[in-house]
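User: Fold both of these, please.

Assistant: Here is the first one.
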Amino acid sequence: MASDEVFLRLRAIIVEQFGKAPEQVTRDTTLRGGLMLDSLDLMDLAAYIQRSFGVDADGQALRDAHTLAGLARWVRERRQVAA
């Protein structure tokens, strides 16, 4: 799966599940500061990532990703390792 596809799916999850405006969700948007996702939100996001991409994510991995672009890269790398 290409990086753009992963980003677009992550963006859709954040818009739909967390009620964020699409224009607010860019590659450079930070998960905590820009999107204001707290620890519980990050746990929920990890569950959505697992269901959508088949990749186990935890709160620490999401915190380490910092931006949506970083998270998309992390998801893509984990999918490649699992394949």
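And the second sequence with its predicted structure:
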Amino acid sequence: MELMSLINAVLLLSTAIMFVMAVELKKLIHASILLGAGSAILACVFFIAGAPFAAVFELVVGAGLITVLFISAISMTKPGGGE
């Protein structure tokens, strides 16, 4: 197996693992951080595949903006159902 195909396989497998873990986690803050990390790794896959504009867009929007919006929305909600 060639080195680049091994690197791609490891990156894609870690992306899939992070996204599945983000869906399965109970703590929302940890899930949103894992979602951002998975998006950052997916941006690396795009860059290696030869799509630098898609990689930058995924990094800025997927890993940056959406993660910050999720974390800020989670921090604004009250734990305990708003008693």
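The radius of gyration is 15 Å.
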